[in-house]
Amino acid sequence: SVSSIVPESCLLIVVGLLVGGLIKGVGEKPPILKSDIFFLFLLPPIILDAGYFLPLRQFTENLGTILIFAVVGTLWNAFFLGGLMYAVCQLGGPGLNHIGLLANLLFGSIISAVDPVAVLAVFEEIHINELLHILVFGESLLNDAVTVVLYHLFEEFANFEQVTILDIILGFLSFFVVSLGGVLVGVIYGVIAAFTSRFTSHIRVIEPLFVFLYSYMAYLSAELFHLSGIMALIASGVVMRPYVEANISHKSHTTIKYFLKMWSSVSETLIFIFLGVSTVAGHHYWNWTFVISTLLFCLIARVLGVLVLTWFINKFRIVKLTPKDQFIIAYGGLRGAIAFSLGYLLDYKHFGMRDMFLTAIITVIFFTVFVQGMTIRPLVDLLAVKKKQETKRSINEEIHTQFLDHLLTGIEDICGHYGHHHWKDKLNRFNKKYVKKCLIAGERSKEPQLIAFYHKMEMKQAIELVESGGIGKIPSAVSTVSIQNINPKTLPVERILPALSKDKEEEIRKILRTNLQKTRQRLRSYNRHTLVADPYEEAWNQMLLRRQKARQLEQKMNNYLTVPAHRLDSPTLSRARIGSDPLAYDPKADSENLPIITIDPASPQSPESVDLMNEEPKGCSGLPPSPEEDEEGLVMRVKEPSSPGTDDVFTPGTGDSPSNQRMLRCLSDPGPRPEPEEGEPFIPKGQ
């Protein structure tokens, strides 16, 4: 029940304090955590475990944010803390006046870095979401280069009588040498390890040994040349893993996984126990002003750095860091054994205040591990920060992830904007075309990523099935591939697929290559401020305007020449209109030759109550219309009721002559009025 409230690292420090007290109580001298033992034997397993199993996708997607926090944030903490501590030493009285600016800056560089061991110990217990975990843990891994550079820089400057501008410039350049040199050493050893694993198919027993051996050699080689050993270990683990796992057997993979976890767990336990023992055994010099100022300024520098850097980072991030995320990042800046070991490495000759530095460092470590480490879990629950969801990756998720990667790469290619998807796709193509063929043995080098992932999932599912003892009753969820993995069968003969000829394939590739190349050359990233004016754009606009005016003129002419036919009323509406005002539809005199619309008001069931019996067009019979007819227009006549027994459909009426049955449409309006200057109308009446 205690471990659910207090982190494991705090309990281990308490155990170390008790063990150190017992050893001191019996009159013996307790052992102290020496820096050589820490840096050469205890730290590498923890960093290798973190680098080998690093979630590469989240790490690369947030690499810019991690680098800003690791580099700029650590520099800000070191100089802000060192400058304020120098001011405190100048104002703090006779016991602190002798501490100079370089010594305070060295102390600030030691205490400013976030410790990966402490972060791993605390964050893995609270199960924080992947984004916050990779931001804080990635920062703690990558700030090692800054810490190493600043530590050696100020240690060397302390021996100089005068520091020149050239020394400062060389110190700034040494940061790039230390960080990039460490990465380069790690990449070289990672490639060598992957290449070696290609030829270990007959000696499966020693396959895990190559992983540990080459990783440790990368760390030692980097430390030998004063480069960043932590970055060398991370780079070697990240580079070798995909190729080594494709070459080694499943048993070797299991051995590597569990041995690394066990080794890093043992190292972590020893580090925290030794930290407690060294606290009891070491020499301390307590100065209230210095210790309390260090603790207070550490917290202020961390909070200010996170707030300012996050405000800047959020301008470029799609997924913004919320205030809750900023609080967890600031609160998760734990210090640990790396700071203690660097302080222990200081030389008494040049730093006579080493005991006071160590006392302040241990105080900060205890405060961050105990107070912040114990309260971060309830704060995460109180703020309702998103937790890590333990879900197994599925084929569906992998397919959609790869699809979105290809889609975003294509969009970037079309837009002419070369973002990280474009370069990631370039790297994957180079890896598939050249690197895999050199570092992976057999047919696995040509296997697509999705198929490899599927085989890995099926193997895992099959092993779980065997371990659970369910091989006798196979559930429907397990596919036959799992059984084939357990009991391998002879492979079926491959189906011969029709293939394109080499000439045809090369021709298609040439067409695609030239077109895509033209696209890349023609299209640049879109920016409305830098658009180049098209010389033909104005001519096109004028041509479009002319076409639009011609279309409008044509529509006006059509309106003059034709009038659309009136839509007939529905039968119900016609009957209602006749019933309301029957006099309006009485037949007029002298209207024999006019078109007749007969309406039957009596049969509500018939759908065709309105019959066009006689619609003879005026002006189309060959005779010009008389003025009386022109004034009268159309005349409505009521249809006479038929005699009983007759069929009004098949019985011919008076107006059913062949000439009357022709339904012709003509102009009911002679056209627009003539213009004053014209003598004749637009359309002559006789036509």
TrEMBL record:
Record's keyword terms, sorted: Antiport, Calmodulin-binding, Cell membrane, Coiled coil, Glycoprotein, Ion transport, Lipoprotein, Membrane, Palmitate, Phosphoprotein, Sodium, Sodium transport, Transmembrane, Transmembrane helix, Transport, Ubl conjugation
Its subcellular locations are:
Basolateral cell membrane
**Which catalytic reaction applies to this protein?**
Na(+)(in) + H(+)(out) = Na(+)(out) + H(+)(in); Li(+)(out) + H(+)(in) = Li(+)(in) + H(+)(out); Li(+)(in) + Na(+)(out) = Li(+)(out) + Na(+)(in)
A Gene Ontology biological process in which this protein takes part is:
sodium ion import across plasma membrane
Its membrane topology is listed as: Multi-pass membrane protein
Please state every residue range assigned to the domain named Sodium/hydrogen exchanger regulatory region: 478-562
Main subcellular location of this protein, as a coarse class: membrane
Coiled coil (residue ranges): 502-529
Keyword Cytoplasm carried by entry: no
What is a single molecular function from GO for this protein? Answer: sodium:proton antiporter activity
Q: Gene3D superfamilies under this entry? A: 6.10.140.1330, 6.10.250.1040, 6.10.250.2020
Name the GO cellular-component terms: basolateral plasma membrane
Kindly list the residue ranges recorded as spanning the membrane.
6-25, 37-54, 66-89, 101-122, 134-154, 166-196, 216-239, 260-282, 288-314, 326-345, 357-380
Q: Which InterPro entries match?
A: Cation/H_exchanger_CPA1, Cation/H_exchanger_TM, NaH_exchanger, NHE-1-like, NHE_CaM-bd
Domain Cation/H+ exchanger transmembrane: from-to ranges? 6-380
PANTHER family per UniProt: SODIUM/HYDROGEN EXCHANGER (PTHR10110), SODIUM_HYDROGEN EXCHANGER 1 (PTHR10110:SF59)
Q: Which family does it belong to?
A: Belongs to the monovalent cation:proton antiporter 1 (CPA1) transporter (TC 2.A.36) family.
Q: What is this protein called?
A: Sodium/hydrogen exchanger
* UniProt source species: Campylorhamphus procurvoides
